[in-house]
Design brief:
Blueprint: H1 4-17, H2 23-39, H3 45-56, H4 70-81, H5 86-99, H6 104-112, H7 121-134, H8 138-151
Helix pairs in contact: 1-2, 2-4, 2-5, 4-5, 5-6, 5-7, 6-8, 7-8
């Protein structure tokens, strides 16, 4: 709804309880930073001052770098957590596509670059569905499905679809 101070308050609360690098929190922060950039000129001067002050002190509440652009923040997250888990890679990929739709192939490469070693079926399914939702090209989604099929051969979600 555009209530940036409320969103910032929610982010600060989430930072206290979410583990460092939590994918869901990352996606929310990127959306917040994008919205802040879009609405910065419309904000009341005092609201802008409060937001700037809080974002410059974000390291104190466990989220350094919130005074950067959404693109820079996403790039930093990718460097730090991108290969930590498939969910983190998907969060960075989804945010990249939100920031720039033309980066869908690059975003897919983030996800495809992570090994499925200890990934659960639930997590793998969520990532596959997210890939489709955020606009990763179908051929890249099929590559992921083929890898998932090897790990989870009985999972219906990853089976090849035949047109009859």
């Amino acid at each position: 709804k555009g209530r940036l101070l409320k969103v910032l308050q929610a982010i600060k609360r989430a930072a206290k309880i979410a583990p460092k690098g939590h994918p869901g929190l990352h996606r929310g922060i990127v959306r917040f930073l994008m919205q802040l950039k879009q609405k910065k000129s419309e904000l009341h001067a005092l609201v802008g001052q409060v937001l700037d002050s809080e974002l410059n002190q974000s390291e104190k509440w466990g989220l350094p770098g919130l005074n950067q652009s959404a693109q820079q923040y996403n790039d930093e997250y990718l460097k730090q957590f991108g290969v930590a888990s498939i969910s983190s890679a998907m969060a960075a990929a989804g945010s990249l596509i939100e920031l720039d739709r033309s980066q869908a192939n690059r975003a897919a490469d983030f996800v495809l670059g992570v090994e499925l070693g200890s990934v659960s079926l639930k997590e793998c399914s969520e990532v596959y569905n997210s890939m489709k939702e955020v606009g990763i090209p179908e051929d890249k989604c099929e590559v992921f499905a083929a890898r998932a099929r090897v790990k989870f051969p009985l999972a219906a979600l990853f089976q090849k679809r035949t047109v009859s």
